[in-house]
Automatic annotation (TrEMBL), chain A:
Protein name: Sugar ABC transporter permease
UniProt-listed PANTHER family: ABC TRANSPORTER PERMEASE PROTEIN
Entries under InterPro entries matching the protein: ABC_transporter_permease, MetI-like, MetI-like_sf
Family membership noted in the UniProt record: Belongs to the binding-protein-dependent transport system permease family.
TrEMBL record, chain B:
Subcellular location per the Swiss-Prot or TrEMBL entry: Cell membrane
UniProt protein name: Carbohydrate ABC transporter permease
Lineage: Bacteria, Pseudomonadati, Pseudomonadota, Alphaproteobacteria, Hyphomicrobiales
GO BP: any one term: transmembrane transport
Domain called ABC transmembrane type-1: residue spans: 86-277
Transmembrane intervals: 20-39, 85-109, 121-145, 157-177, 198-219, 260-282
GO CC annotations on file: plasma membrane
Biological source species: Rhizobium straminoryzae
Length: 297, 292
């Protein structure tokens, strides 16, 4: 009797063991992710300044936020940055992948050259491009030394153009990664389909436009999701490359949130801006993750 | 990725091929240029950087800028160089990567081989946490670290990186273990093997490729992180935050050569990992993300 009860207990522990192993991670996620999200949402409805303060002020922070010129600059900038960054990375990645897929000699050398920037931190990328684009010592100076006296490239110091220097540096960092995703997609396409289309008289251009590119849909989707997520989070690159300047010309939601929360003592407004960032990302990620999980299970 | 034999059906003419090669080389230059500029200028004395041509090779080769960046450059208020921050980063990244990878492996094992009701919801909630903008957790995290007495410490940063890293490691191991036949696990169970024995004897021995992916991913993400480092680092700031301090410092002469040397030092560990194991990483990552 006793031994069977003991065995019974052991099976029951065995039954529960998987859940016991998973439980801490799940608890940590619930607390540190979802609990913190709820807390930040709550803060966005309070009058918190330098420290959290629990007086409810309703939608006040959101009203103030949308009335701030800095926030408008940040929204316009993220619009410009995200759309250019996503479009250029995708176009460039796709082009490089298609070209690399033409039985290129030296592919093994080229691929890591395109890819290595993704191993660097945005701070390193920002530092490199900051000095490379600096008119005093960088590209402009070099071109003038090489005899092109009138060459001028001062975007990084120019209020209207500085945002595009962030696009350049960000594209440099991530486009190789997008290339790798498309290349993997291309290598997964069955060549028999392509050969059949060619026998039917399709030109190379038609072949890619009508057959290959539509078949890369999953790669397009994954790269869109990854790039938009990186774009909205972009904080480090702006800090390292322009510091949000000149003036406030390259302010982004991520830099706005940080400065309002931690240096300007407007925690309520900072929290409200973080909530808007989260909702934007959620609008992209939730449908994607939902579809992925549904398909797999 | 390389296992699939490549035999593109498309035929390209000689002119088209020349054009393709030229374009590919041009882009190789574009990707290499900033690295070239950093390396070359880090080996010059400052006068040659400010007075000379950024593209030119050094006339006087010197390691002074590297020595200065490592041990004497002004970081914030003290002239310590990057060395102590490099050590902070190492002390942070090693435990954070190890802990999050082990947890991810166990989670992935449970979520694929010991499925239970609503396990997809549990996984979905963990997965979404990979993609949140971390700005949404900065304020409460700062408060919690303060309460725990971990604000501004390396263990505090380890905690943060483990918490926000397990979503990704769980994702990797789950997708990987999902392809492993569950019948083998059930057979071992009938033979009397328990939860941990099955993991240790059956799953772990085949986990090499995905562990490479998980370790590289976590290592580069944590080493390269700036937001958490600068928010919670306090006096134990990691390398990225220190490099930013070095480059942005407004006092004195801008020592471009030291900045470049510092940037390379900050990039060396991840570049090294990438060069040694990069191909496995891309291969493993693609297997999970493009399929499906």
């Amino acid at each position: 009797m006793a031994s069977s009860a003991e065995a019974d207990l052991r099976t029951r522990i065995q039954d529960w063991l998987p859940k016991i192993v998973l439980a801490p991670s799940f608890a940590v996620t619930l607390l540190f992710v979802y609990g913190f999200i709820l807390f930040t949402v709550f803060l966005s409805f309070t009058g918190s300044k330098m420290l959290p303060n629990y007086t409810i002020v309703g939608w006040e922070n959101y009203r103030k936020l949308w009335a701030l010129e800095n926030w408008h600059i940040a929204i316009v900038n993220i619009g410009i940055f995200a759309s250019l960054y996503i479009v250029i990375c995708t176009a460039l990645g796709l082009m490089l992948a298609i070209f690399l897929d033409q039985k290129i000699r030296g592919e093994g050398v080229l691929r890591p050259i395109y890819l290595y920037p993704m191993a660097l931190s945005f701070i390193v990328t920002g530092t490199a491009w900051k000095w490379f684009l600096d008119p005093g010592i960088g590209l402009e100076h070099v071109m003038q030394l090489w005899g092109w006296e009138s060459f001028s490239f001062t975007w990084i110091k120019d209020n209207n153009m500085a945002i595009y220097t962030i696009v350049i540096a960000a594209v440099w960092q991530t486009s190789g990664f997008v290339m790798a995703m498309f290349l993997a997609g291309l290598r997964g396409i069955d060549n028999e389909i392509l050969k059949a289309a060619q026998i039917d008289g399709a030109s190379s251009f038609q072949l890619y436009r009508r057959i290959v590119i539509p078949m890369l849909r999953p790669a397009f989707l994954s790269s869109f999701v990854i790039l938009s997520h990186l774009a909205i989070k972009s904080y480090d690159l702006v800090i390292a490359l322009t510091g949000g300047g000149p003036g406030r010309a390259t302010e982004m939601p991520a830099t706005f949130m940080y400065s309002y929360t931690f240096t300007r003592n407007q925690m309520g407004i900072g929290a409200a801006s973080a909530v808007i960032m989260l909702m934007t990302i959620a609008a992209i990620m939730v449908p994607y993750l939902y579809a992925e999980l549904k398909e797999k299970s | 990725m390389s296992a699939v034999s490549q035999d593109t059906a498309v035929n390209t003419g000689r002119i088209a091929r020349t054009f393709i090669y030229l374009l590919l080389l041009l882009f190789a230059l574009f990707y290499l240029l900033p690295l070239y500029v950093m390396v070359v200028n880090s080996l010059k004395p400052l006068s040659e950087v400010t007075g000379g041509n950024m593209m030119a090779l050094p006339q006087t080769w010197t390691l002074e800028a590297w020595k200065s960046a490592w041990s004497t450059a002004q970081i914030g208020v003290s002239p310590t160089g990057l060395e102590p921050y490099f050590l902070n980063s190492i002390l942070m990244v090693v435990p954070a990567v190890a802990i999050s990878t082990v947890i991810g492996a166990l989670n992935g094992y449970v979520l694929t081989k010991w499925r239970f009701r609503y396990d997809t919801i549990v996984f979905g909630l963990m997965l979404f946490s990979c993609f949140i903008p971390f700005q949404i957790v900065l304020i409460p995290m700062a408060m919690v670290l303060g309460k725990l007495g971990l604000a501004g410490t390396v263990p505090g940063l380890v905690l943060v990186h483990v918490v926000y890293g397990i979503g990704f490691t769980t994702l990797y191991y789950r997708n990987y273990y999902a392809t492993f036949p569950t019948e083998l696990v059930r057979a071992a169970q009938i033979d009397g093997a328990g939860f941990f024995r099955i993991f240790w004897r059956i799953l772990l021995p085949i986990s090499g490729p995905i562990t490479v992916v998980s370790v590289i991913w976590q290592f580069t993400n944590i080493w390269n992180d700036f937001l958490f480092g600068v928010s919670f680092g306090g006096t134990s700031q990691p390398m990225t935050a220190a490099l930013n301090n070095l480059v942005q410092s407004s006092t004195g002469v801008k020592e471009y050569n030291v900045h470049f040397a510092g940037a390379i030092i900050a990039a060396l560990p991840t570049l090294f990992v990438y060069i040694v194991a990069g191909r496995y990483f891309v291969r493993g990552l693609m297997a999970g993300s493009v399929k499906g």
